[in-house]
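pasting for ref
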Amino acid sequence: MKRKIVFKLLLLFVFVGLSLTSDAQKVKAKFGRISKEELGNKVCVADSSAHAEVLYDKAHASVDYNAGGFFIRIKRHKKIKI
């Protein structure tokens, strides 16, 4: 009985630890100045008939609580070449 409880707690700590340190994107993009490489690309690799291309898309989501209850706050940075 104790082994099951210890195993479940250990598994819970592993999952919580992994979720707190996980990153979907490791790309560090600077906003503001556009590089010559980004300007030089004339055709989108994924779709040659596209009129715009998403160069960078990063979002950070957090769950917050106030007197009204829980809510999700999302901050998003996107770089689009038109």
